[in-house]
Amino acid sequence: MGVTYFLLCCLSLAITAQAQDCSRPVGGPNMVLKDKDILLETFPDGTQVTFACEVGYISAGGSAISICQGGSWTPVRLKCERKNCGPIGEVENGNVDYPEGTEFGDRAVITCHDGFILVGKDKIYCQDKGWANRLPVCEVVSCDPPPAVADGTFKPVSESYSYRDVVQYSCQKGYTLNGSISASCSDDGTFQPAPPSCIMVRCSDPQVDNAELTEGSQRVYGYMATVTFKCKTGFMMTGANSQRCEINSQWSPPLSCKLITCKLPPTVENGSFSPNKTSYNYGEAVQYSCQKNYTLSGAKSVTCSDNGIFTPGPPTCILITCKLPPTIENGSFSPNKASYNYGEAVQYSCQKGYTLSGAKSVTCSDNGIFTPGPPTCILITCKLPPTIENGSFSPNKAFYNYGEAVQYSCQKGYTLSGAKSVTCSDNGIFTPGPPTCIRSTTPPTTTTTTTTTEPPTGNGETVKVMLIVLAVIGTSGICLLCAFCIYKKKRGSGRGGPDKEAPKSEEEVALS
Ligand SMILES: *[C@@H]1O[C@H](CO)[C@@H](O)[C@H](O)[C@H]1NC(C)=O
Ligand SMILES: *[C@@H]1O[C@H](CO)[C@@H](O)[C@H](O)[C@H]1NC(C)=O
Ligand SMILES: *[C@@H]1O[C@H](CO)[C@@H](O)[C@H](O)[C@H]1NC(C)=O
Ligand SMILES: *[C@@H]1O[C@H](CO)[C@@H](O)[C@H](O)[C@H]1NC(C)=O
Ligand SMILES: *[C@@H]1O[C@H](CO)[C@@H](O)[C@H](O)[C@H]1NC(C)=O
Ligand SMILES: *[C@@H]1O[C@H](CO)[C@@H](O)[C@H](O)[C@H]1NC(C)=O
């Protein structure tokens, strides 16, 4: 810089060796124009100016003078160096540091060893004329007794305390210490931290809306007294259920009981509930019901209870099925399956000889039970068969079993028309219908003759008739024989025959 300046000056000097004014001269680094020159703007030829080092800088030799010659300044040889204050010295029981150095504007920082307190300035600056202040001193730390605490004391008690000595605080009975229980003599000659205070802690009778005290009831509530609350029916704790008497004579945390409400009750498959609302009050009930073909198992009604939960748990809807329908005596049912769906029907029927009494068809219904109840099979019996005119039946009984037959017969002179035998059948009726007895057209004698001439049958009655016929014929034969013998005798004695003939014809009529 200086060199360039010098060369430029020489050049201008060589070109213009004429009498010319100079403009304001520029010195080297860290230097300023001295005295009144500093105020001028132009300098006549031949003017001599003097430079000086800036504040904080000192001359390191060289001429400070420059002369205006032919419009330019002769070079300045002055050198300016920054002022160096050098070390400030030592501090007993302390240290001196120079974070930047010891030159102009730099600072010396003084610290005392632990247990020593600095008296004086802890920072000293290097100025134009050297260090600005004298060094401080490090004095041994000692503390005066700490301030007295109302309703409390500390120990040990002493006139003066050395560095790091500790005092312990305590409060009188019934008082609570608020703050640090101990303090120590610190660097600045005071006890730290600040002394505690002794406080008489008294909390008011605890009170929580919609709740009652369950534990911790006392006459007075001192520091740390704990009470537990329980919400009244229908209310629920929103947070903790116990609180403590804190140092500020206030209960903490605050407790609150909020009205219990329930959200929607649980849904049930194949079922529904009512009423359907977004929120239910405590104690409110909800009724469940199942869809058709489902039956409810569990509690039909649930109630909004503690903790906002419906109790008891929800029921379930179970598909209704029926097991086998009841069996009946002398009857059966169909179809026969392991399980029947809701609404499915079963048909009953009775064995032969039995008749069904009650519902023939039963249906799988609610509760898995077939309704109506099963029918019964009653043994079929018949009452007396119908009587017929001029005829009778046998056997004659109070009642007849199913399948039992009854024989009809007609009186003498009547002929049977229709089925001779009828059978006790379904519905207690004899089938087929009864026969009728029709008056015979042939006279009774003819009937007898017909009877006699009839070929013998295996029938006992016929045999009887035949025996009678044979007996009549036999007797007639004997009589005829006797009559013949008598006739012969009479003929022989000469008597009349017609007297004897009359009885014979009488006998014949009686016999027929
Ligand atoms: C307890 O000490 C702290 C800190 O010094 C203070 O803020 C508070 O108010 C004190 N409590 C009472 C109840 O005095
Ligand atoms: C019963 O619920 C089941 C499962 O949700 C479903 O598959 C079925 O269809 C329902 N039955 C009726 C009759 O709605
Ligand atoms: C209750 O009502 C809501 C809105 O109407 C409906 O979406 C929901 O299915 C209903 N629930 C029952 C169980 O009825
Ligand atoms: C009808 O039921 C009864 C009782 O079980 C039984 O003794 C009787 O033999 C049954 N009748 C027929 C024809 O099976
Ligand atoms: C109930 O069961 C019957 C018989 O199984 C069936 O026909 C009907 O569709 C069922 N109803 C419902 C609503 O599931
Ligand atoms: C036949 O029946 C009719 C009507 O009951 C009766 O009047 C008549 O006397 C009966 N005949 C004989 C021979 O019993």
Automatic annotation (TrEMBL):
<feature type="domain" description="Sushi">
    <location>
        <begin position="201"/>
        <end position="259"/>
    </location>
</feature>
<feature type="compositionally biased region" description="Low complexity">
    <location>
        <begin position="441"/>
        <end position="457"/>
    </location>
</feature>
<keyword id="KW-0812">Transmembrane</keyword>
<keyword id="KW-1133">Transmembrane helix</keyword>
<feature type="disulfide bond">
    <location>
        <begin position="53"/>
        <end position="80"/>
    </location>
</feature>
<feature type="domain" description="Sushi">
    <location>
        <begin position="20"/>
        <end position="82"/>
    </location>
</feature>
<feature type="disulfide bond">
    <location>
        <begin position="410"/>
        <end position="437"/>
    </location>
</feature>
<keyword id="KW-0732">Signal</keyword>
<protein>
    <recommendedName>
        <fullName>Sushi domain-containing protein</fullName>
    </recommendedName>
</protein>
<keyword id="KW-0472">Membrane</keyword>
<feature type="domain" description="Sushi">
    <location>
        <begin position="260"/>
        <end position="319"/>
    </location>
</feature>
<feature type="domain" description="Sushi">
    <location>
        <begin position="83"/>
        <end position="140"/>
    </location>
</feature>
<feature type="disulfide bond">
    <location>
        <begin position="350"/>
        <end position="377"/>
    </location>
</feature>
<feature type="disulfide bond">
    <location>
        <begin position="171"/>
        <end position="198"/>
    </location>
</feature>
<feature type="disulfide bond">
    <location>
        <begin position="290"/>
        <end position="317"/>
    </location>
</feature>
<dbReference type="InterPro" id="IPR000436">
    <property type="entry name" value="Sushi_SCR_CCP_dom"/>
</dbReference>
<keyword id="KW-1015">Disulfide bond</keyword>
<feature type="compositionally biased region" description="Basic and acidic residues">
    <location>
        <begin position="497"/>
        <end position="512"/>
    </location>
</feature>
<feature type="transmembrane region" description="Helical">
    <location>
        <begin position="465"/>
        <end position="487"/>
    </location>
</feature>
<dbReference type="InterPro" id="IPR035976">
    <property type="entry name" value="Sushi/SCR/CCP_sf"/>
</dbReference>
<feature type="signal peptide">
    <location>
        <begin position="1"/>
        <end position="19"/>
    </location>
</feature>
<keyword id="KW-0325">Glycoprotein</keyword>
<dbReference type="Pfam" id="PF00084">
    <property type="entry name" value="Sushi"/>
</dbReference>
<keyword id="KW-0768">Sushi</keyword>
<feature type="domain" description="Sushi">
    <location>
        <begin position="380"/>
        <end position="439"/>
    </location>
</feature>
<feature type="region of interest" description="Disordered">
    <location>
        <begin position="435"/>
        <end position="458"/>
    </location>
</feature>
<feature type="region of interest" description="Disordered">
    <location>
        <begin position="491"/>
        <end position="512"/>
    </location>
</feature>
<keyword id="KW-0677">Repeat</keyword>
<feature type="domain" description="Sushi">
    <location>
        <begin position="320"/>
        <end position="379"/>
    </location>
</feature>
<feature type="domain" description="Sushi">
    <location>
        <begin position="141"/>
        <end position="200"/>
    </location>
</feature>
<dbReference type="InterPro" id="IPR050350">
    <property type="entry name" value="Compl-Cell_Adhes-Reg"/>
</dbReference>
